[in-house]
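Hi,

I'm pasting everything inline rather than attaching a file, because the server keeps stripping attachments. The sequence lines come first, and each chain or strand is labelled.
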Amino acid sequence: MADQTEFERELAVLLVTSLNLSLDPQAIVPDVPLFREGLGLDSIDMLEIALAVSKQYGVELRADDPDNQTIFSSLRALAAVIAARRAHS
Amino acid sequence: MAAHWSEQRERGSALLLRLMRAIALAAGRRVAGLLLWPITLYYYVAAGSGRVALAHFYQALGRRPTGRVLFHHYLTFAHTILDRVYLLARRADAPPLRVQGFEAIQKWLDRGQGCVLLGAHLGSFEAARAAGLRHEGLKMQIIMEERVSRKLNRVLEVLDPDARNTAVGLGGPSALLHVRDTIAAGGLIGIMGDRIAPAERSYTAEFLGRSCLFPLAPLRLAASLRAPVFFFTALYRHSIDGAPCYEVVFHPLAVAAPEGPARRQWLQDLGARYVGCLQRYCRMAPDNWFNFYDFWSTHTLGSLHARAAHESARRGSDRAVDCADFVKRRRA
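And the predicted assembly:
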């Protein structure tokens, strides 16, 4: 089993359901890249994730954010950004 | 193997293109149109594999691909490129646009709902864009493959610097968030749904009597944007008096995508309707088909598989993607 924090596990479930992946959420290794050679997601999946995240957590992922490349790099990075932004709002 | 569209080299030098632009603007459409004959003849003769591919397309339509038909086809393509100059410069000598079916889109726009336009390399996207620009304040972006026609686009951009902002590429995570924002702001997004890249996920549809793969990404993007989807094309035609015009057509394909498991059926229906529409307008104006490569032999699993393997070998990477596996792996 992958070493996920509680919030990462919650987010993993959100990814799997919103993208309709045939994958066990707990099997997503938090620091493995979400895209391409990692989990094999693409930019359209990313868009779907952004939508799910804004619906679920009220955190808006913006087009002009210079950190977008990092934010979507892994489950861990995504979870960290959402947690931080939720705390701020 | 004939060159895949993404590998075809763009012909013509930037200097010549700039010269042609200057002549087009100074001499007007009629005179520049005469120059298209020798230019087209050159491209026609130099085309080689593109000409053979085009002949296959006409055979699939049940038409005899005579030299005259094929030359006329190249000439139509040349005209649509020349007309980009007049459309971008908003000159009066640009051929008139006859728009059909925009009312259905307008209804959505009036409610602040953006729409997705699904097109193809059929006709002139520039004329379609010009039709959109007639509506003041309407935000319209066309998603383009950045690698093709780069030289030509750079020469033409000068005529309307805003045009650059309406054509976006798909690199990086921010690009699609911009697309999302355009839809959220009640704008239009244009996507091409016909060309497929190696290792791209695909769906199968019958196209002009033969089974063919089409890219899934444009449909998935439309689904993720949760917006109504329309087919669009701007066909280069002639009116009864022989004067050229563009028939700009918008045709409803789907309402906004549903959530959850119903999404799959929605994607399937959208794909079938899109290819049906594409076929219909190909038959109506075959000389507007601007995919100058062998469409059917390129759009097969075997060919795309070979291309993906070839590409990863060329890049020396170990990321050889199994295309068949790629298609099957998810949401099977």
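The mean pLDDT of chain A is 89.

If the labels don't parse on your end, tell me and I'll reformat.
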